[in-house]
Amino acid sequence: MSKLFVPLVLLAELLGLVSCILIGLWMGRYLGGFAWDGSSQEFNLHPLLMTVSMVFLYGNATMIYRIFTGVDVPRIAVKATHAGALLLATIMMSVGLTAVFQNHNANGIPNLYSLHSWLGITTVSMFLLQLVLGLGIFLLPFASSQLRASYLSSHVFFGIAILSMAAATCLIGILEKIMFSGIKYSDLPAPAIIANAAGLTIVGFVITVAYILTTNKAASSPNRNYSNLH
């Protein structure tokens, strides 16, 4: 293994976990906590669940084949771990979206008017399309090895693109929430510091994941054949 690989994976995990903890702390301590009653506390589930699902879990799902390269683990176990992370991300993302729509509808707030919402819906749609194509081409037995090999580079590219779009959506959402929260942002009270730090750790997580996925020096085997992993 490259000397950089394990430290980079650990760094990515640390940044991803810290981003989720910071969002949870912000929502839980400074914005009233969580509920499922159409209130602002239900809305608070949205940023937390979307960060956990579309950034942390999805980012980990994209890294799984890299992480297990060169490790004596059955291929079916690697596939199951990859699919499990994506399934959990899909469930949490669905709950997070339901929370924001229920909150908006209960309080007469328009849906899907902001750049944050447009980019978010685009990201979720691409995520679901990527999931369906990945399932059909790599998991089900109908696709030929030639199709799998030719599609793989696009699958990896769009995985990174979707993760980057999810991060951008989160950053816009963080800024919207901090501006709508009624605090004096320029004074940098504790919620503003936490929100800014959460945004930075999300960016750091995505950059680290992208480096792991695209840089041979970070890979455990620079010349390995990805098509054999699916």
How does this model look, in words?
With 230 residues, the protein is mainly α. The chain has one domain: Four Helix Bundle (Hemerythrin (Met), subunit A). It is built from 7 helices and no strands. Helix 3 runs parallel beside helix 7 and helix 6 runs antiparallel to helix 7. The longest helix has 36 residues.
Short characterization:
With 230 residues, the chain is mainly alpha-helical. Helices cover 74% and strands 0% of the residues.
The CATH topology turns out to be Four Helix Bundle (Hemerythrin (Met), subunit A)
Query: What would CATH call the class?
Result: Mainly Alpha
CATH hierarchy: architecture: Up-down Bundle
Strand count, sense and barrel status of the largest sheet are: none
Order of helices and strands: HHHHHHH
SS-based structural class?
mainly alpha
Low confidence ranges: 219-230
Distance between the termini: 21 Å
DSSP strand content: under 5%
Identify the overall geometry: globular
How many separate helices?
7
Instruction: Describe the oligomeric state of these chains in a short phrase.
Output: single chain
Tally the structural domains.
1
Roughly what is the average pLDDT, rounded to an integer? 92
Q: What is the strand tally? A: 0
